């Protein structure tokens, strides 16, 4: 089922070219992944006729199986000669340890960004600019801009906080400031902070699935492209927006923070997409590269 979800997303991305629809498709793929993984087990437990497993007591019950189909599952386990339960226990232990490691990594990332925000100072000079961007983009939540010395590059932290490095605030030009703040506001408009939480949860649950990592990588690429497509018209067009991104690149605008999900796609490909010099590309290529790196 997990591979089927990934294959469906890949086929849809081959057909759909519009950035916002591609963003929604990749997000829907992530959201569908847990359902696709656990639905067959739920069906096996609740929908299989009781008669298939009749006569085998479950959890000490003398009246038959406690759950429809559960006796059949236990019969299959017993037929394996007593080895399968130990294998299942080992697999479960490995999964718990792996999920716990990814959970700790994500929590450490959230704690780190919380500490950065606590030490950051509010940038009042950008208040009017961000207010205009919010109105033009239709962002209902009130965004704030913080200057953080511990921030590697511009990023949206949480639901409404835009973090900017101190060197960026001090030396960036108008094009760079407008491009970065509009791009981060676009992430808020798309609901990416909530989707990042979903992405982190799916990665914890399915860390062992290559299809999960492909979907996660595809989503993070498509959300950046969709944010660029939403921000470019508000920054004077594609050319002006691209110049702003290039100017911001000099201040370390490519961020890699696994715990927060603040991960950008390669800037060169983003600029080509913004300027219309490159198509969406093959979605499977990102997955192959991502899996190879792991």
Structure report:
This protein is an alpha+beta fold and 294 residues long. The protein has 12 helices and 6 strands. The strands form 2 sheets. Strands 1-2-4-3 form a 4-stranded mixed β-sheet, sandwiched between helices. The protein is globular. Mean pLDDT is 76; it is low at 49-72, 253-264 and 282-294.
Shape type: globular
Question: Taking Cα atoms only, what radius of gyration do you get, to the nearest Å?
Answer: 24 Å
Major sheet strand order: 1-2-4-3
Content of β-strand: 5-15%
Largest sheet: 4 strands, mixed
Helix content: 55-70%
| Number of distinct beta strands | 6
Order of helices and strands: HHHHEHEEEHHHHHEEHH
Number of helices: 12
Overall mean pLDDT stands at 76
Unreliably modeled segments: 49-72, 253-264, 282-294
Question: What can be said about this structure in brief?
Answer:
It contains twelve helices and six strands.
Question: What keywords describe this structure?
Answer:
4-stranded mixed beta sheet; alpha+beta; single chain; two-stranded antiparallel ribbon; 64% helix; 294 residues; 6 strands; 12 helices
Helices and strands in order:
Layout: H1 2-15, H2 19-46, H3 70-79, H4 84-119, E1 121-122, H5 127-137, E2 144-148, E3 155-157, E4 161-165, H6 166-171, H7 174-190, H8 192-205, H9 210-231, H10 238-249, E5 256-257, E6 262-263, H11 267-274, H12 283-293
Parallel strand pairs: 2-4
Antiparallel strand pairs: 1-2, 3-4, 5-6
Helix pairs in contact: 1-2, 1-9, 2-8, 2-9, 4-8, 5-7, 7-9, 7-10, 8-9, 9-12
């Amino acid at each position: 089922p997990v591979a089927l979800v990934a294959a469906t997303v890949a086929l849809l991305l081959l057909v759909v070219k519009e950035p916002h629809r591609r963003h929604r498709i990749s997000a829907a793929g992530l959201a569908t992944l847990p359902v696709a993984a656990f639905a067959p087990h739920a069906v096996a437990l609740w929908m299989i006729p009781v008669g298939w497993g009749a006569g085998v007591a479950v959890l000490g019950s003398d009246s038959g199986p406690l759950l429809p189909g559960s006796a059949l599952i236990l019969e299959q386990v017993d037929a394996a000669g007593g080895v399968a339960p130990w294998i299942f226990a080992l697999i479960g232990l490995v999964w718990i340890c792996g999920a716990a490691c990814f959970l700790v990594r994500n929590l450490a990332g959230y704690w780190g960004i919380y500490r950065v925000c606590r030490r950051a100072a509010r940038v009042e000079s950008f208040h009017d600019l961000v207010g205009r961007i919010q109105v033009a983009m239709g962002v209902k939540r009130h965004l704030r801009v913080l200057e953080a010395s511990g921030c590697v590059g511009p990023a949206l932290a949480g639901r409404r906080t835009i973090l900017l490095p101190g060197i960026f605030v001090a030396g960036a030009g108008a094009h760079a400031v407008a491009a970065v703040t509009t791009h981060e506001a676009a992430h808020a408009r798309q609901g990416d902070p909530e989707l990042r939480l979903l992405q982190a949860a799916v990665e914890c649950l399915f860390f062992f699935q290559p299809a999960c990592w492909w979907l996660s990588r595809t989503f993070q690429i498509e959300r950046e492209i969709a944010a660029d497509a939403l921000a470019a018209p508000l920054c004077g067009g594609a050319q002006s927006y691209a110049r702003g991104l290039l100017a911001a690149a000099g201040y370390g605008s490519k961020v890699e923070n696994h715990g927060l999900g603040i991960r950008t796609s390669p800037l060169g490909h983003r600029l080509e997409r913004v300027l219309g010099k490159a198509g969406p590309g093959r979605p499977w290529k990102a997955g192959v590269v991502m899996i190879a790196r792991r």
